[in-house]
Amino acid sequence: MGRQPCCDKQGVKRGPWTAEEDKKLISFILTHGQCCWRAVPKLAGLLRCGKSCRLRWTNYLRPDLKRGLLSTAEEQLVIDLHAMLGN
């Protein structure tokens, strides 16, 4: 027994995402919102599995995702909390 696989592996593209695939996923999510991730690839016209789409959105494409270095205030907050709480 066990979990049901996230998708049928046949016909699913693997490897790096292209800019075109990113645009399709962003456009679909911004238009329709985050819905059932298993249905997203088919509805968005992608040859990826739902799990791959969810991870791409969550880890790379979300508009509220912060990239880059910590600000000085954030750095100081980490230092202060470490001094107060330890490791």
Distance between the termini: 40 Å
- Count of separate structural domains: 1
The class by helix and strand makeup works out as: mainly alpha
CATH architecture: Orthogonal Bundle
Question: Looking at the structure, what is the overall shape?
Answer: elongated
Catalogue the unreliable spans: none
Q: Please estimate the helix content.
A: 40-55%
Computed CA radius of gyration, to the nearest angstrom: 18 Å
Average the pLDDT over all residues and give the rounded result: 90
The largest sheet, given as strand count, sense and whether it forms a barrel, is:
none
CATH class reads Mainly Alpha
Q: How many distinct helices?
A: 4
CATH T-level fold name: Arc Repressor Mutant, subunit A
The count of strands amounts to: 0
Order of helix and strand elements from N to C terminus:
HHHH
Share in β-strands: under 5%
GO molecular function: transcription cis-regulatory region binding
Pfam family, one: Myb_DNA-binding
Main location: nucleus
Domain Myb-like: 9-61
